[in-house]
Design goal:
With about 400 residues, the protein is of the alpha/beta class. The protein has 12 helices and 16 strands. The chain folds into 2 domains: about 5-185 and about 300-390, Zn peptidases (Aminopeptidase, 3-Layer(aba) Sandwich), CATH 3.40.630; about 185-300, Alpha-Beta Plaits (2-Layer Sandwich), CATH 3.30.70.360. It is elongated, with a radius of gyration of 24 Å.
């Protein structure tokens, strides 16, 4: 089914959704603590006559809307959680919760999917079932994985799943996605070097864990350039080195923490193995003990071909300037867990504002970041267009 949207079909929803979005922004909640947000979502869905189930992954909400006779089912997903950041904006709707900030635009995602639920429940230009999945804990806590472990797709079947993310690198009114990887796998490593500690004036009497840590940091930064095929893409970043507390004491322990981003499981394996080899080698050379904890917390987000095509077609139908993304991003996303289980696609929705030459568009996770409300109708239209293409009713 090929439909286009008239602005009036969506635009009458926008003022109320802007107010909702700003209310969510003012009352952000961290991972698995989205009780107020999920309560608002559940109440809004019930008001539309949509079947609601709460409690999946604690604060998750799933709304089910059926129409027609088709047995085909799709899932549309939005994340709800905020970040542990002190908001520094001067907005009238700035966070009222100290140390918690909607710095990634999930308030906008929630508002857009609620808008889509309202529009689709009103127009019902589809034949099948739509699962509106409002997910907690995307920011590093794996809420999608927990929902799956608690039976998301068994209780709420989906033949395909779709999600979007607001994208400040793209102008408002634009959208991109691609077949294959679109977001990176995210790994974390924590390396602990242990010795005996001793007097800084007598370094010959104790293994130097700080020297070992320094050598290891240098070696870690050569792994991607020397152990990964140049045709592949990966990032390894050391983000924290700590050890010691006095100018005249050689510490007994030093720690190194960082992240690895990649798009291919074989590359991921190669990097982890090389990191462990480097840690063991430095420990042996310096006479210290080493412990490596390597956690693969998010897999790569990989779009399937047919669904990526539908996502772009839906973007065009929604009036967006749609294009294929030239390359994936090294940021990560736990929608990846859903895409490991079902076909689907993840879309970047432009939210960049027009700025002067001297101004800079704020990046995601910035303490002053705020979702651009001008993008709300674009996201609503896209969600609706996806549903109408996947569940076309002639």
């Amino acid at each position: 089914m090929q439909r286009s949207f008239s602005p009036a079909e969506i635009d009458d929803l926008v003022p109320e959704l802007v107010a909702l979005r700003r209310d969510l922004h003012a009352h952000p909640e961290l991972a698995f603590e989205e009780r107020r947000t999920s309560g608002i979502v559940a109440a809004a869905l019930r008001d539309l006559g949509i079947e609601v189930r709460e409690g999946l992954a604690g604060t998750g909400v799933v709304g089910t809307l059926r129409h027609g006779r088709s047995t085909r089912t799709i899932g549309l997903r939005a994340d709800m959680d905020a970040l542990p950041i002190v908001e520094q904006s001067q907005l009238t709707h700035a966070s009222r919760h100290s140390g918690v900030h909607h710095g990634c635009g999930h308030d906008g995602h929630t508002a857009m999917l609620l808008g889509a639920a309202r529009h689709l429940s009103r127009t019902r230009r589809f034949d099948g079932t739509i699962q509106f999945i409002f997910q907690p804990a995307e920011e590093g806590r794996g809420g999608a994985r927990v929902m799956l472990e608690q039976g998301l797709f068994e209780r709420f079947p989906c033949d395909a799943v779709y999600a979007l993310h607001n994208w400040p690198d793209l102008p408002t009114g634009h959208a991109q996605t691609r077949v294959g990887p679109i977001m990176a796998a995210a790994d974390r490593f924590d390396i602990v070097l242990r010795g005996r500690g001793g007097h800084a004036a007598q370094p010959h009497r104790t293994p130097d864990v700080l020297l070992g840590a320094s050598q290891l940091v240098v070696q870690l930064n050569t792994i991607v350039s020397r152990r990964v095929d140049p045709a592949e893409s990966a990032v390894l970043s050391v983000t924290r080195v700590s050890g010691g507390g006095s100018h005249n004491v050689l510490p007994a322990e030093a720690t190194i923490t960082g992240t690895v981003r990649s798009f291919d499981a074989e590359v991921q394996d190669r990097i982890e193995n090389a990191l462990r080899d480097a840690a063991r080698g430095v420990a042996l050379a310096q006479g210290v003990n080493v412990e490596v904890n390597y956690t693969r917390y998010y897999p790569a987000t990989i779009n399937t071909a047919a669904e990526a095509a539908i996502a772009l077609q839906a973007a065009e139908a929604a009036g967006l300037a749609a294009s294929v993304a030239a390359r994936p991003a090294f940021t990560s996303e736990d929608f990846s867990f859903l895409l490991q289980r079902r076909p689907g696609a993840y879309l970047w929705l432009g939210q960049g504002r027009a700025v002067s030459e001297s101004a800079i568009e704020l990046p995601l996770h910035h303490p002053c970041y705020d979702f651009n409300d001008d993008a709300l109708p674009h996201g609503i239209r896209w969600f609706c267009a996806v549903a109408e293409r996947e569940l076309g009713a002639d």
